[in-house]
Amino acid sequence: MRKKLDVTPPENLRRRELAVVEQKRTYDLITPLYGGGIKANEADPITVVRATEIRGQLRFWWRAMRGGQSENDPTLKIREDAIWGKAYEKKDEGIPPDQTIQLVVDITREGTPIKPLEMRGPRPFAINDIPGYIAFPLQPDQKERRNARPIIPDVRQGVQFILTISYPERLRDDIEAALWAWETFGGLGARTRRGFGALSLVAVVGNGLPYQSPPRANEVKSWIEKQTQKYSKAGNFPEGVPHLGNTLQLAVTPPSRNPMEAWNRLIRKLQNFRQQKDASQRSAWPEADTIRQIAKKGPAAAIKKFPRAAFGLPIIFHFTGKNAPEGNYTLNEAKVVTNAEPDKRSNKERFASPLILRPFLCADKQAVGIALLLEGSRVNLENLVLQDDKRDLQSVNEKSRLSGTLTPGEARSLTAKIPELKNETDLLQAFLKSF
Length: 435
Known about the structure:
By secondary structure, the protein is of the alpha+beta class. The chain contains 8 helices and 14 strands. Helix 3 (172-185) runs antiparallel to helix 4 (220-231).
């Protein structure tokens, strides 16, 4: 028989409350949702908005706002995993649920499937107020266009959902920073950096930060600058991590009547900048003539450069007309190859643009277009490779590599045909200054 313990239990038991923030945040998508499912170009067949996707978006924007680190801090990966979780291996000790971030999504409106494009003869045209310039991945390919009814994926308009998020109080600053940046600059689905799936926060219920209405249209730029100072964390960001710099590189369009109008206005500005024509209605940029020279289908280019690679890669070129280079030509950034493996060169499949374009819905029900340039992740303009459908046209090595970097003289020469360039050697800076 056990010995009776000489212990007097307390008269009143108090439940220890864990310091946990829990909120329900309601969001509208103010632009159509493109993709977002497990298959490319398609919405998820079970739920149009997935909690795992939102967690990934919040991780990205947390890095962009709080990923700076000093010499004595743990590595970025350790800090990120401690906040957002990780895939655990067999011998790892998991984090208790009350010490991690929990996300639950409830769809309140699944939205309406709409077509972004329609075929008019052999060519696709944008419909439903969607900017056709950025909807090109949804176009049917040349083979599909031969069918009587080419397949064009749907996008979803009018999606609304509630995100229930809970997290330890000690992580409040980190979570609020990530949420604010995602709501202001991010979105859901594919091509969010060009405005698809843009968010608008509608309501907040819970014990965290209360709902704060967005600024009026004429206050957006100053509001973003103040909020960035509030939420960002000073420090040195690891190389290659996209982030908001100490000096915010931001431009805002004049107000529009609604988000779709602001979105179209913003994308037209990008289209006009990137597709400038000269007096003969040929491209004023040097890439086409450069490819003609490399493919031996034209004379030497006045400027043998690919400056528009700065907007992101890959870029696909297709020529038409007499004596035009045949097939498609793809510009990519080449991976760095060691001397030990000179014949094992492979190219990066994609380099996301550091330029973010999206509409923003304001408190006065007007909307503006936001252009934000992220720091820390740029295309290496001195390490480009051009491919046709079958082979590399230009090897990337010390003796013969393709470049996208303009010299001051080349920038002045191009400015004569492209006034918006304003003698800038950095195209991204020139685009922001064009606002």
